TrEMBL record:
Taxonomic source organism: Streptosporangium amethystogenes subsp. fukuiense
SUPFAM superfamilies, per the entry: Radical SAM enzymes
Name this polypeptide is given: Radical SAM protein
InterPro entries linked to this entry: Aldolase_TIM, Radical_SAM_PqqE_MftC-like, rSAM, rSAM_sf
Domain Radical SAM core residues, every copy: 1-212
Keywords: Iron, Iron-sulfur, Metal-binding, S-adenosyl-L-methionine
Region Disordered: start-end pairs: 328-359
Pfam families (alphabetical): Radical_SAM
Amino acid sequence: MHFNSILVSVTEICTVGCRHCGFTGSTRDRQPTADEIGRWVAQACDSGIPEIIFTGGEPFQRFRMLRSGVGAAAGHPGRPRISVFTSSFWGRSAATVDKILGQLPGLTRLFLSTDVYHQERVPTQHVVNVIEGAIAREIPEISLCITIAEDHEEERIRGLYRRFEDRVRVHVDRVIPTPFIKTAHQVGLPPDPEHFSASCYLETPLINPNGDLSACHIGKAGAYVTLSDLAYFMGNLHEKSFQEILADADRNYEYQFLRVYGPQGVARMVASSPAVRGLFKGATFTNGCDLCYKMLRSLDGRARLREIAADPFQRELIDAIRLVRFGERPPEPRPAPGAPPQLSGAPQPVAPQPVRSGT
Ligand code: SF4
């Protein structure tokens, strides 16, 4: 299977405490050993994933683990790109920034979270120090990640970094509402397919600190709810190798449904199920992930996805779209216990078919 990158959460711990954080209110005490991080990163690199993105919690609050992961990626013959998310809380001075970045050779990108929420807790000057330090250390890419609840916040934050305009990239996303964040005006979309894209962040799975491999960033919610019965959960690296988990995911049609249809497919699931339509009557969603997560957390939503994934016609469609979109062949059926070995070669690809509405 093709992935653009993988998120590796080195710790759930973060003491910055932004009020929009999805972790707010959770215990957040899980973290692996430095050796485990190194091993998991090496396995992800062995699978050919071209970019390793370290995240948390706040990865710089467990620097030994971050250094182990960056070292494993930098020493891998696949030479992946190596990125880190941070709040820049550690950017107290130019000297501190230089000393810290000097211990992470091979780093190719910094994602700096900066928005009205982070800047309530972290001085903007710390972010500026990290940007200047990264430029001095010739880290090739610096991205500012701005999370907004209301449109005017974007301009306010962009204005803080105007002088770095030609050196930084800016990525803006909408906050996912939590019980801890209330805004005066929340932009919301009804769950109609035309509002949502057929692709999302599934080309970037997530390794959680407890070894859970999750389909996408939403797996971070595993800090406070059980996700192992949802389509996002792929397996645990303490129980299976990275490659074994990917082989299972290849045959998991609930997961493959999300890969080929994205949040647009989730919106079509809503439209096609009277039970879910009733559940979401009048509801709006800030983005595709907000819709997807609420859908899959609901019993009716899960039942609808299971129903679709068990339908042979839907499976053929999913196989066909995987072939056209990702160049992936349909998974070979697992041999029944005691069955003789197959003599023929790889199965023939399934011809693409028109997409039937109602999923
Ligand atoms: S739409 Fe769903 S599957 Fe896709 S990235 Fe968002 S939460 Fe994950």
